Each structure stands twice: as structure tokens, then as C-alpha cells.
Fold this protein.
Amino acid sequence: MSSTSTTMAGLDQQQPTHAVISLRRAFYWSIRRELWEHRSIYVAPLLVAALTLTGFLIGSGYQIGKVRSAQSLGPMELQAAIDRPYGLAAMFLMGIGFLVSIFYCVEALHGERRDRSILFWKSLPLSDFTVVLSKMMIPLAVVPLITVALTIVAHLSMLLINIAMMLISGMSLSLLWSNLSLVRMWLMMVYHMFALHGLWLAPAYSWMLLASAWARRAPFLWAVLPLIAVGVVEKITFNTTHFRRWMLYRFGGAPGSDAYPGSDHAMHAWANLNVGQILLNPGLWSGLVVAALLLFAAARVRRSRGPI
Amino acid sequence: MALIEARGLHKTFKTTVALDGIDLRVEQGRILGIVGPNGAGKTTMLNAILGLTPCEGQLTVLGLDPWSSRDQLMRDVCFISDVAILPRWLRVSQSLDFVAGVHSRFDRTKAEGFLARTDIKRTSRVRDLSKGMVTQLQLALVMAIDARLLVLDEPTLGLDIVFRQQFYDSLLNDYFDRSRTIIVTTHQVEEIQHVLTDLMFINRGRIVLESSMEEFESRYTEVQVLSEQLSAARALKPIFERHTLGRSILLFDGVDRERLAVLGDIRTPSIADLFVAVMTNQSRTQGATQ
């Protein structure tokens, strides 16, 4: 008996040193696993990028004609004729990124219960918090990263097509250089995707993850209906619309979010945008606190959930 | 300290009582078989041990509270709960990558070695594997983890005889050593009888029988009684009596084998025989009290 107890004690002492996987490694594999399961995270943006490029290729002759006629109209029109397709491509990719994030969050903690695989994931030494946080990393970091990277690739391909077309039609390439500021557009994309689509909307993603962990079925309705209900009840009881306005504020307008590329004033607004503005916005920080609380709740709910 | 210690486990689902005061102590190196009818509370008990469900009462597994530290517990505990828990989209190679990535006690070469003996292709997805192959894959993953406790809940459900045989053979020959502990539940009790060191029957959330296999073999005797000896045999108070093909088979608890040998052919009952006897007696006494 004494010999077994000493070996047991020995085992216990070893455990902390060699049995623990670093948190970074656990996150890395958890995020990879999400990409294995939810291939739409990169397939959907890839498809949109491919479609955008095809459209640009087909319409490039038309664009050249437009640029040629815009030369006589004025610098604003010329710039619009050249950079507008680039802005549109970025906007399409951001749109699909947003959709992918929403569908992913609603599905993330529901799918694993539906296919019973939650039991497999729970048989591994990963805490519910690690799992929920790694899922949150998809809309917060992975989708923005993919969107920015694909936008850059799409823009560069468009640029090549543009250069080829202009050389063929004997136009000066300096038209491109003086009217297109791609690097600035990319920097704005980075800001837009990570700060606005990512951090600013973090409470929305956490809320959807919570609904996904909670609902037995129809997690999307669980995510949407309570919000509508709160708005309706507020309107009926107090005849006010604070909640609705707060939701619109959250979804429609973060500070500086009028700077959607592709809108008519895109370049203009981009130039004026101050990145520090959002970091000083208390709405961002209170949103992040709410997001943290909702994620905590989602992890707690996941702990008590099994297959459905 | 015992590997698992439970005192007064209670669990109620809305109106049904799943666990009704379970006391349990499992030492290291044992292979415990838990047998019970459907809805007896077996899975609930295993889920409590694995930290998948909360319950009232005291429960420690490897010195941890499973409900609050499941992730820590899973460094030393493995389970196969049912064949259908591997996600269907997962590739075999991905399953190896992932477990190797997140589990420090996973020995990939060992898993690869086990898979090499099967027809499972690395590039296949779980959805393309047969049910038997999925179990083999799960077994390969689990056996390559240097765990201290392995929990198997109906691991061979729906498998054909060959796979079932292989499953327990691999488990015993390639995996089990005296430092590990295994808990297994199954309805196919005859397959695990020679595997177990301990046996437990549970019914309606309570333990109705608990015994080591040595004790089981020395305590219970089944006698095929000749018809002229029947009244003499009944005088020794058998716990159960059944009739097949015109013979009477009586089951005795704690009666000296030499005394029984004169009454007819004696043998050690199968777990299934004892289980039927215990369950039938229980429902009879319950019927009498109601």
C-alpha cells in the first residue's frame, strides 16, 4: 500500500510539468479544427473573390471606355472611374465576411450538439472557455484576416488586368498611379475589418454564440427573436425606442463607419478617418465587457449541454 | 486513495430519478463492469464520473471534482461513449493531428501502428467509414493515450461479432496493464465476463449487487437439479429457479458447492444468469410491496 501511494504521489507531481498543453497550442489547434469543419469561412469569400474578378475581367473593356471619357470630365470623375471597382470588390468581400461570421456563430456551438461530436470534443483536455474563445476568434480575427488577404489578392489581380488593358489600348499607366491608392485602401480594410467588423460587433457575435449554445433547435431564431421582443415590449410599455436605437447604433454606426469603401465619398471619408477615434469610444469598451460576459455565459451553458 | 470515490450520488431529471444514492469506490488496476437494464442510470453515472453532468453528493475522480475540472480530468481519463460521437466531417489524419495537438499524453506512432492493422485510409472522412471502422479509429485514438482511467459506455453497440471480439482483445492485450483502470457498461455481458475483475448491477439508480469476480465465482453456483432431488434442492433456498427443456436450473448464493454437487451438475453461472435472477427477484419484491 505504501509503495502504491508513493508512486501515485510521484505521478501527481509529474502532472503539471508534462501533462499540460500550452494555451497557445490549444488555441491553434482549436481554430484549425474550426476551419476543417466550417470550410465556408474561406470557401465563400474565395467564391466571391473569383466572381468579382470574373466580373471585372468581363467588364474591363467597358471600364477603359469609361476612364477615357471621364478624362475630359474632371479629376473626381476620373478617379471614380478608376478606383470604384476596387472599392466595390472590397465591399463585396467585407459583406460576405460579415455573413460568414453571422452564420458561423449561430452554428458553432449548435452543430457539435446536433451531430453528438460534443462528446468527442469534451473527451479531450480542453476547457469550455478555451473552446468558446477559440470559436470567437473566427469572427474576431480569422474572417477579418481572410477578408483582408483576399481583398489584397483581388486588387492586385485587378491591377494586372487594368495594366494589361491600358497597355493594349495605349493609355498612360500614370493614370493608375495617380488615381489609385491601394495601400491606403488596404490599411483602411484592416482597420475596418478588425476594429469595426471585429471588436465593435464583438457583443453581437458573443450573443449569437450564446444562442447557439443554448438553443435546442433554431438557434438563429433564439438569437434574433429576443432582441425584437425587447424592442416591441419597450415600445408598447414605455412608448420609447431606446433599445432599437441602441441596436441600430451598434450595427449601423460605429464611429467612422460611414467610411465604407465603394460609397461615393469613400476615399474622402477614409482620408479623414481617425483610427484613435474608435479606441477612445466608450461604446467599444462597454461592448467588449458585454461580449466577455456573454462568452462566459456561453461557456457555462456549453458545460451543461450534451447531444440533442 | 481510490481512483473514484463517490458517496450518496443523486440525480433527478425532471420527474425521473436517475441516480438514487450511489456509493462507489473503484481502485486502480480494476476492470469494473456495470450492468443494468435500460434507464437504470448507468450512463448518468458514467457522465457524472466524466464531468459531463452535475449531480448531488460527493464525487472525486483522480482527486478532482469532475464537474468543475473536466478539462484537467481529461488529461488522465479517456472515454468511448458510443460509436457515433466522432464528427462525420473529420478526416482520419485530422483526428490524429488534432488529438496529438491538444493531448500531451497522446502517442501518435502508437495510434498509427494500430491503424496500420486496419483498412482505414488516412484520407477518409468519418462519414465514409463503416461503423466497425469508426470504432477501430476511436479505439486507436484512445489506446494511444496514456490514460489512467478508461470509461466505455456500450462501446460495441451495433458491431458485428468479429469487431466486438477484436475490440476487447485489443483492449486487454495492447492496452490494459495493472496501472490502468477500466469501467465498462454493456448489454452483451457474456463478452466481458472473462475480462472483468469487478462486477456491479444497478437498477433504478441504485446499486443492487457489487462483487469482485473471485467473490462472484465462489459465491454463486448454478445447479441443474434432477427432478427427484428438486424438493431437497429447494430446501437449500435457491435465489432463483428456472426451467428449460424439462430441466430445473436453480441458482444458489453462498451455499457450499459440495452440498450442491450431490443434487446435480454444478457450474458457475454466467453474469447474464445472475442478472436475470437478481432483476426478476427485485421486481417481484417490488410488486409484493406495492
Notes: Chain B has eleven helices and 13 strands. The first strand of chain B starts at residue 4 and ends at 13. The first helix of chain B runs from residue 42 to 49.
